[in-house]
Amino acid sequence: MHNKRDFLTIPDLDALEVIDLLDKAADYKAGRVRGGAGPLADKTVALIFKKPSTRTRVSFDVAINKLGGHSLALSGAELQLGRGETIEDTSRVLSRYVDAIVIRTDEHDEVARLAASASVPVVNALTDDFHPCQALADLLTIRERQADFSKVRLAYIGDGNNVCHSLILAAAMVDMEIAIGCPKGYEPSRAVLTTAVELAKRPESITVTDDPAQAAAGADFLYTDVWTSMGQDDESRERHERFAGFQIDTALLGRAKDDALVMHCLPAYRGEEISAEVMDGPRSIVFDQAENRLHAQTALLAFLVEASS
Ligand code: CP
Ligand code: NVA
User: Fold this and answer.
1) Ligand 2 atom closest to Cα of 231?
2) Which of 36, 91, 182, 203 could join 197 via S-S bond, C-beta 3.0 to 4.6 A?
3) DSSP string covering the chain
């Protein structure tokens, strides 16, 4: 496979490919394209999950079925990987059996090594550093409300984590303004910000502040994620203290535009990063966002497998 395409971070696609994928995802969603005996007919996709997942795992499974393929769900612990077989050997062996590999794990480097050794496309289903599939679905969700990304101000309130990183890169790629509001010490990584500034048509449209009200001011969309990500449970107490004031509640929503909408990648913890009133209120589009994981990933898998064959 000479033109193998992976999706480990947002810039693995170029801006035109992102827009094309969003169009295809919208077509799948509207039923304008049917999977049937389509791009994944007679193909198998391995889903390796070393961390819990509801949305990502189920939406990939359903997407594979819609495209006519078979999925094989594997927890890290049931593979020899859990007993010390290397990721490279695992990758070479799986490449002999399956047509694509989707993996969720801790270290981003593990996914990069898997992809480097694989002869089939590899998809990052979340690492400690990135969650690119989430960001694709987020772009689809935003574009359903505002077709022109350059007119959107997105405010992300909370931890400068994996979800935040992929959102910054996605925003830069489609020329969308993004304002990050996070406590000091929990900013997104410098490397991600540097890449985003390089990608952006308007580098000044990427801002980081420790004042949530400033980030939220005039926003079209307010977005948040958990204060404590998977693998950080021992920091939970300290994070609760540090993130106080970084909740999307009615007062913070009041800083945004009058018709601003609220997003969350889920799972949500009401009363922490988002108030129950906002999460379950009329401005919340979190379940449309969750649904769009399915449509975005259907388009993504079809693209990667076709491009790599
Ligand atoms: N948003 C998201 O990736 O959810 P899961 O952890 O349930 O897959
Ligand atoms: N930042 C969260 C996202 C969950 C989808 C985590 O990594 O746990």
Assistant:
1) 8
2) 203
3) -TT---BSSGGGS-HHHHHHHHHHHHHHHHTSS--SS-TTTT-EEEEEESS--SHHHHHHHHHHHHTT-EEEEEEGGGSGGGGT--HHHHHHHHHHH-SEEEEE-S-HHHHHHHHHH-SS-EEE---SS--HHHHHHHHHHHHHH-S-GGG-EEEEES--SHHHHHHHHHHHHHT-EEEEE--TT-PPPHHHHHHHHHH-SSGGGEEEES-HHHHHTT-SEEEE--SS-TT-GGGHHHHHHHTTT--B-HHHHTTS-TT-EEEE-S---BTTTB-HHHHTSTTB-HHHHHHHHHHHHHHHHHHHHHHH-
